[in-house]
Specification:
heterodimer, A: 244 residues, alpha+beta, 40% helix, B: alpha+beta, 4-stranded antiparallel beta sheet, 4 helices
Chain lengths: 244, 202
């Protein structure tokens, strides 16, 4: 074949000297991977945070609505009614728990007043819920009776003797008394009463107690009258005749 | 390629850090606040619901109280005290007891003060928020025999509303000498000065 014919062929000829050029593999850097993982993680986290925040905002709005609804269901009139009754009950209970029966105090004093003692004046004061004080001016015929009266008062479980004082002897001659001088001794008894021991008992309850709540007689066993007071008795059952 | 370039990697990392600082971190804090607020609202809603339930129960309990008992309570501790009505009641009690009422008057305003109540000093700590009743004092002067005065005091105690004796002073009405005729023991006419206190809710 002539040489000039070789160069005119339409068939491409492979150049045996030309090496085949192939693309080299791209280098993969670990830093690139980390950066991309980090970036996409942040993106996913941002998306999750956004979604979760939206959900929480909806929940929050729902809770606010529910609270408003609960508050709006509050009945002010009912509340005021309950409050009024509660206060009234509390106040009534407070007074009922601190009742004092003055007549029970009188019963106690009657029971603790000996026959020869008369009461000239009687002052009672309720200082507070727990204190009732009594100041009573009394007259008797001798100092022995005063001593005996003091012991009888001390023996009474409802009365507490704060003091027997302001003793005054009156030894004036009696114009009408042929027997001669008539001696009297005045004194002031200061007493206190524990209100818990003399509560007011309503009639209905009192009737249910079969009249057992009457004044407890004073028990005076260790007091011995000295002379003429030997005949003196406590007037447990003779209060109308003696004492007050 | 540009996506593999160092500049792009730095830009990407910077963008990620910026997103974390500018959006994610504040959002986390906001989420925490929201969760706390939701928990608080939920707790308060439960409290309000429980309160409303308790209130309904109490209202039912009040409604279950008989009308007579409610009237008795209202009588015992009224909202206000009608001084004329109380004076009339005390006078009627004196008539029933047999004593003669010489005088009755309403004590001055200084006495009728919630804060000036000498018999209100002990209050249960659980009831500190509750107000004590308002006292209203009346002064009365009566004369009569010992048993009548005692009966007068007994009838005061048995009133439908509190008529408490705060002060009582009894003496012989015909002067205080040492004569037997003037002592309390002889069932003479005695003179009694009584300070009576009643109460109202407000």
């Amino acid at each position: 074949m002539p040489e000039n014919q070789l160069g005119t062929s339409f068939i491409p000829k492979r150049n045996p000297k030309k090496a085949v050029k192939r693309n080299a593999p791209r280098p993969v850097f670990i830093g690139t991977i980390i950066v991309r993982i980090f970036f996409f993680s942040i993106l996913i986290a941002a998306l999750a945070v956004f979604t979760f925040e939206r959900k929480l905002q909806n929940d929050y709005a729902e809770e606010v609505r529910a609270l408003d609804s609960a508050i709006s269901s509050f009945n002010v009139e009912s509340w005021e009614s309950v409050l009024e009754i509660d206060t009234r009950l509390y106040q009534a209970k407070q007074r009922l728990q601190n009742t004092v029966s003055v007549t029970s105090i009188f019963d106690a004093i009657e029971a603790a007043t000996i026959r020869t003692v008369t009461i000239e004046n009687f002052d009672l004061e309720r200082v507070d819920n727990s204190t009732v004080t009594i100041k009573s001016e009394m007259t008797t015929d001798s100092f022995d009776s005063v001593l005996f009266q003091r012991e009888v008062l001390k023996a009474n479980d409802k009365l507490s003797v704060d003091g027997v004082n302001e003793l005054a002897l009156n030894n004036a001659a009696s114009e009408n008394n042929v027997a001669g001088n008539r001696t009297s001794v005045q004194f002031k008894a200061e007493l206190s009463v524990d209100p818990a021991k003399v509560p007011h008992i309503p009639p209905a309850e009192r009737n249910g107690l079969n009249n057992t709540e009457t004044a407890t007689p004073a028990v005076v066993e260790d007091v011995v009258p000295i002379n003429e007071s030997e005949s003196v008795e406590t007037n447990n059952d003779q209060s109308n005749q003696n004492g007050l | 390629m540009i996506f593999n370039s160092l500049f792009f990697q730095i830009l990407l990392a910077g963008l990620a850090i910026a997103i974390a600082i500018v959006y994610v971190n504040p959002s986390f804090k906001n989420i925490g606040d929201l969760q706390f607020a939701i928990a608080e609202y939920k707790k308060e809603r439960d409290n309000v619901a429980k309160f409303n339930t308790d209130l309904r129960d109490l209202a039912k309990k009040i409604n279950s109280i008989s009308e007579a008992d409610q009237q008795a309570l209202l009588k015992y501790m009224p909202d206000t005290v009608d001084e004329v009505s109380v004076s009339r009641d005390i006078f009627n009690i004196s008539l029933m007891s047999g004593v003669v009422m010489n005088d009755i008057s309403v004590s001055d305003g200084a006495t009728n003060n919630r804060n000036n109540n000498p018999v209100e000093e002990v209050v249960d700590p659980a009831d500190q928020h509750k107000t004590p009743p308002v006292p209203h004092a009346f002064s009365a002067s009566v004369t009569g025999e010992y048993e009548d005065i005692k009966n007068f005091l007994l009838l005061l105690e048995e009133s439908n509303y509190p008529l408490e004796i705060r002060n009582l002073s009894i003496s012989s009405s015909n002067g205080g000498s040492n004569q037997e005729s003037s002592t309390l023991s002889n069932n003479n006419d005695l003179s009694a000065e009584v300070e009576i206190v009643t109460y109202s809710r407000i």
